[in-house]
């Protein structure tokens, strides 16, 4: 072994050994063709994994030899472990294999990235999110690591998934056991008492897909790891399948699949996860977060995004190469800015309406300014659509989720006149691990198993689409007798969502990714949320509730300031110490904040995130940042005057009336003819 006093030598030796070990392990990896995943890593993300895995192993070897303090010593000594990795792998015998490992140069030179240097005068945000921050060009860009509210707590201090209790004396219960005890729905299940519609759930998922996509680890050459193997001696180190107890009410196997988030660390130290979406609220869910995806979506004429019209319906383009798709080729899945659009049929209508409105505006601009080239029309349109979407999220979505107290506390209320002056380039907008893995997954509790199909008059036009039968099946979208996606769009407005609490619909808890006719072939999403937080090293609930002003619990009963006694009693059936309660169950058991959907802890994390997304986004629609092109006074007035409901009327031909508030299921209807398109005059300078 190497002498730890020669740090440089010890690091080099450990990286060399780690590289060798990982290379051999890769040859014995078990991969599979039939894994369906919503978290598929794109090629640029994949290119980072070999380096990440190698450096995690090197860190493990080094710590075993020199103690955990070595990580800090390396930093203090200024040793560039990234460079040592590059040296070591450059000397490796097999250049083809190394290519997959050396992510830095290869990843950055990818054709999918926008590499030109930042210039302060760029009129519109980039597709990849680069250069939003002029001091730190990569802030908020796609493929950049998640931020963290609290440092990660991996069991080994390096990167192993959290399986131990906080005092390390025993093992945490399996996430499925926790779900069985705490997350089952009563029958019938409680609906939301504020009268919110299922569309509030659905729109939340669109926002989630705009903000977060955590790529999963892959096997060699991008193959899917087989993480449904239950024997720990057999599965890859990047698998962490969830143990199913014997006698489980639904699953007959002893585990269900779970793939760890891809490790993109670039130096000796802890494991690091990245976001494949742009972190900003910028409709990357519609436009794509890298140039390769983006270019596939555009027609490159008149500013249009591609569409198609089978059976007379205006639809998104399809992706015949989508390996997740169970219903193709007869009913192909959808191509959009996010690979999860075909996850279930409820997502289609809201995403389609945004795309269709882009095309409507681009057409109007082209008609008014026929001399403008495609690129100019496209980007001007994109700028308008992102602006009214941001306005809608902060005006109509967030206040319902957070309530007025938290909206005010975090400074999230939109202005009705003038400009926001709080842009702060020192704020990192990055999505926080705690937000992506848990807090913003509160919406899973709102999702029903049944997605109603009704017409404009709320009359049934087909049998409800069951979630568990339709994960990555798109045939309901093509069903013309049941009015295609229009009836699902209406159904979302005219049914209640489930209450946001610790009850999850049967399909969310048992049938996500299930293959038709094969009960038990899917996963439990609520349990997966717990496992995902452990995967990221997100610590327990007790570490977070204090941030929201609650006291640190010493006994389980101390949770009484936020959790009702009956639910604390439930927590006691799975956890013995308050320090072990996972963040997700803690949050969904909290009483909601007055006027809010979520409780204080989720509310704190979500509020902090949307604050960072506002003050840390140079292109936020309310900004007038010196030397950056924001909306001018007339433009922002047009955005504020625009009623978002217009897009539900305009792009669903059978819709002639619309609820006063599309997020309130029984709110009075009014005619669509009262709603006007956005006034484009301010966006059309004379030339
Ligand atoms: C029918 C409804 C929904 C289904 C079937 C669904 C399914 C999923 C699945 C399979 C994942 C990946 C889990 C993992 O491997 O870690 C996920 C992640 C996530 N979901 Fe949902 N979801 C739904 C609704 C929602 C809603 C309403 C929200 C928010 C309001 C939401 C927010 C999120 C977030 C933030 C993530 C993390 C994304 C990432 O890290 O890549 N989801 N969801
Ligand atoms: Ca985004």
Automatic annotation (TrEMBL):
One GO term (biological process): response to oxidative stress
Major subcellular location class: secreted
Record SUPFAM superfamilies: Heme-dependent peroxidases (SSF48113)
Gene Ontology CC entries for this record: extracellular region
Domain of life from the UniProt record: Eukaryota
GO molecular function, one term: heme binding
Record-linked PROSITE patterns: PEROXIDASE_3
Pfam family, one: An_peroxidase
InterPro entries: Haem_peroxidase_animal (IPR019791), Haem_peroxidase_sf (IPR010255), Haem_peroxidase_sf_animal (IPR037120)
Location in the cell: Secreted
CDD domains: peroxinectin_like
Positions that bind heme b: 444
Record keywords, A-Z: Glycoprotein, Heme, Iron, Metal-binding, Oxidoreductase, Peroxidase, Secreted, Signal
Transcription regulation listed as a keyword: no
Protein name from the UniProt record: Peroxidase
Species per Swiss-Prot/TrEMBL record: Mesorhabditis belari
